[in-house]
Amino acid sequence: MLRIIITGAAGRMGRRLVANLAEDPALELAGATEYPGSSLIGVDAGELAGVGVLGVKIVSSLEEAFANGGKVDAVIDFSTGAVVDNAKLAAEKGAGIVIGTTALTAEQKAELHTLADNGARIVQTYNYSVGVNLLFYLSGIAADILSEDFDIEIIEAHHNQKKDAPSGTAARLAEILCAKRGLDIEKDIRHGREGIVGARTKKEIGMHAVRGGDIVGDHTVLFAALGERVELTHKASSRDTFAKGALRAAKFLANAQSGYYDMQDVLGLK
Asked: pLDDT tens-digit profile of 187-241?
């Protein structure tokens, strides 16, 4: 049985991770954390997630969770806080780490790669949905097949509480498509359009973020040419799809060598 710590366990994603973990007989909750000062410190993580008492109270730091958790096989971190520090601590404890935080800087990614080069086992991806990772894969194939006569636009939609834009998933799609087209992701992504911007060039990919209501996550890649267009779309209706994917990644790390992986590795799409 794999024992897992979940950071941010009182958040919307954290609660779904706890609930889905509790339903999996191969997994056990080893610890749960929230930010210091949270009113939910000390609450049973299972009760908070609606699955009954699990005997694991929410604590204010990953260090405390490790101290209380005994043997820990993996940490699942969807927090917006000390992602690199959490990864370092997990590596020190011999645990794998599954990172779902989307707004990582280039410096943070570099630090995580260095950790993996020195023995850590890390899965980091922009979206843990199996369907979204198929979208990544199919978008790359479509970009290979469709000529530059097809303009590319990326449209993403999320709930009105999402803090970052574009989404990490949209950013990953942009990386894939820029690599296929030989474009510079820093220079050739056009974030929305306003005013007299001129005709669309061939050396750009449009990026558009929609925010509203309780949209879990929609992503569309639009390939448009004269007379025809191809649209690849994924729509998530429940956060459980992300939770199940993250738990699948934790299981993958249990038998993985040290390294920096993404969900394409977990699903065998590489």
From this structure: 999 999 999 999 999 999 999 999 999 999 999 999 999 999 999 999 999 989 9
CA atoms within 13 A on the CB side of 231: 8
CA-nearest of 207, 92, 211 to 155 is: 207
Query: Residue 229 and residue 232: Cα distance in Å, rounded?
Result: 10
Residue appearing with tokens 């410190």: 41
Sign for the pseudo-dihedral over CA of 102, 108, 109, 112: negative
- Which portions of the chain are predicted below pLDDT 70? none
Amino acid 104: pLDDT:
85
For 182, other C-beta atoms within 10 Å of its C-beta total 9
Catalytic residues: 158, 162
Is the entire prediction scored with pTM above 0.70? yes
